[in-house]
Amino acid sequence: MTNLVLFTGSSILITMNLTVNEIFYSIQGESVHAGLPCVFVRLTGCNLRCRYCDTRYAFNEGSTMAVGQILDRVASFGCSLVEITGGEPLLQKGTPELATALLAQGHEVLVETNGSLNIDRVDRRCSRIMDIKCPSSGEASKNDADNLARLTANDQIKFVIGDEDDFRFALQTLDRMPDVLPRDRILFSNVAEQLPPDLLARWMLDAHIRARMQIQLHTVIWPNRDCGV
Ligand SMILES: C[S@@+](CC[C@H](N)C(=O)[O-])C[C@H]1O[C@@H](n2cnc3c(N)ncnc32)[C@H](O)[C@@H]1O
Ligand SMILES: Nc1nc2[nH]cc(C(=O)O)c2c(=O)[nH]1
Ligand code: SF4
Ligand SMILES: [Mg+2]
To answer: In what pathway does it function (predicted)?
Structure first.
């Protein structure tokens, strides 16, 4: 969707609209930024259907907003850290413009993506937090292997592990990966309420893994909330 904004004189600015599910201010619950106050812009729509997805409410529901409206809403929270998530943010044509506009306003910008689409659609000054989907998600065949060569030291990768087969898959993927990311930017998370975190911890310790374990912090803080946090 596009909006046309006409200026006096000869220049025409074309700006994009996006479909937004929710915008909220919370404690970052994932990534290397976990624990920091953060504004979340959750975009509508996803091209995958992971078996464990905790955000199905963002598949279809949303309202149209112009980039400028999103910037105003984000600014109202007075927080420098912003995450664009979804749904799948790289699906929407306006996401690159939104990310670059947030950077221009001085925000630190995280983009959470499922790894099936070209991550270079968004500015490399963003930290792209890229899931590598494991077999138990049912969507591992959608991983774009070319994304591994696009990662920069500012990005993060994430394996959401549902069982031991997923853990082995993650180890094998790391073995084959270019050595771009430091170990603290390689994240292993358990599928909430499916894989007990102590089991994942044991596997990671036994493998002497060079990666960071994560538990979704917001689900610990707000166990009974499934959106808006
Ligand atoms: C809702 S997704 C949105 C961004 C993008 N679609 C993706 O999958 O990365 C955000 C993150 O939540 C993770 N996630 C979704 N459901 C989960 C669950 N039940 N337990 C743990 N992590 C989950 C996803 O794997 C992803 O890392
Ligand atoms: N608090 C909080 N932190 C998050 N980090 C990534 C999230 C996401 O859904 O992408 C998320 C979320 O939904 N809530
Ligand atoms: S890619 Fe992300 S939003 Fe889409 S189904 Fe999987 S976890 Fe949910
Ligand atoms: Mg979430």
So the answer is: Purine metabolism; 7-cyano-7-deazaguanine biosynthesis
